[in-house]
């Protein structure tokens, strides 16, 4: 028996055929019909039907953006795929595919579970997973199980206030913010440079780029420090597009060195690792 899997993203819907050991037999993707739920459901059914003569499926597992309620089948909140929110999507998928066993969870939770299952935190039970992308998100793992919270907002670290003027972590600890801050200082339009370009400019000696990158890593370190002392996990895993950078941990650790020296009362230093399964996997 195999499992048909889907990852619903704002640009594409990725899919695969896996077994319970995590082996991948097939994979592919199709363009996300962001505002057309019928087209999205049809796409899922077409993928299932394309494999019907090759595999016997025990069910479908789905990774979705938003506040995912696997019991009711309703995805709350908002995302780059508006058509999936506010109704029982599991019911529609069951009707379209003929498969009754449909399970789904938030995309950050799914990524975190992969890391504690066969990834960077496979030997740990209590883990925090931090995703650095256009915002800051993540997941809380207790005894290798997701803690979703009373309002399905467990792991939404980006809402954390990190300054006296109520600035949140998501507005100061992302490559997007770093690039926009660089643009403002340089007097150019926001969006004219991205995070990757700022990193390249720093390599060429651009002082503003170097300063903004230092602030970026300091803010990440502050966020990690705060969640360490809230939950006291064994390890904090970093994911998201930034995780592909070879110097990521080195720079976060350097910022953490400075923080730990400044906050003399702090005795527990966070253990930080990069995720095994990056956005490019």
TrEMBL record:
Q: Which CDD domains match?
A: ASKHA_NBD_ROK-like
Mark the transmembrane ranges.
Answer: none
Output the InterPro entries linked to this UniProt entry: ATPase_NBD, ROK
Q: Family per UniProt? A: Belongs to the ROK (NagC/XylR) family.
Name this protein carries in UniProt: ROK family protein
């Amino acid at each position: 028996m195999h499992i048909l899997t889907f990852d619903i993203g704002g640009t594409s819907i990725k899919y695969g055929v896996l077994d319970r050991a995590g082996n991948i037999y097939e994979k592919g993707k199709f363009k996300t019909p962001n505002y057309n739920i019928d087209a999205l459901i049809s796409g899922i059914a077409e993928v299932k039907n394309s494999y019907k003569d090759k595999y016997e499926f025990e069910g479908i597992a789905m990774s979705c953006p938003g506040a995912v309620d696997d019991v009711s089948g309703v995805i709350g909140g908002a995302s780059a795929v508006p058509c999936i929110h506010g109704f029982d999507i599991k019911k529609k998928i069951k009707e379209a595919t003929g498969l009754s066993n449909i399970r789904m969870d938030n995309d950050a939770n799914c990524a975190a579970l992969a890391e504690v299952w066969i990834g960077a935190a496979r030997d740990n039970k209590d883990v925090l997973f931090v995703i650095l992308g256009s915002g800051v998100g993540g997941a809380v793992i207790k005894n290798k199980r997701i803690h979703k919270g009373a309002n399905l907002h467990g792991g939404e670290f980006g809402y954390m206030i990190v300054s006296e003027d109520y600035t949140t972590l998501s507005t100061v600890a992302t490559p997007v913010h770093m690039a926009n801050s660089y643009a403002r200082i340089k007097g150019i339009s926001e969006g004219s440079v991205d995070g990757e370009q700022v990193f390249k400019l720093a390599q060429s000696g651009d002082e503003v780029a170097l300063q903004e990158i230092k602030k970026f890593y300091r803010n990440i370190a502050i966020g990690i420090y705060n969640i360490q002392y809230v939950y006291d996990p064994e390890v904090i895993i970093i994911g998201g597009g930034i995780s592909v950078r070879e110097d990521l941990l080195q720079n976060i650790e350097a910022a953490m060195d400075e923080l730990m020296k400044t906050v003399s009362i702090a005795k527990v230093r966070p253990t930080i690792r990069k995720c095994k399964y990056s956005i490019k996997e």
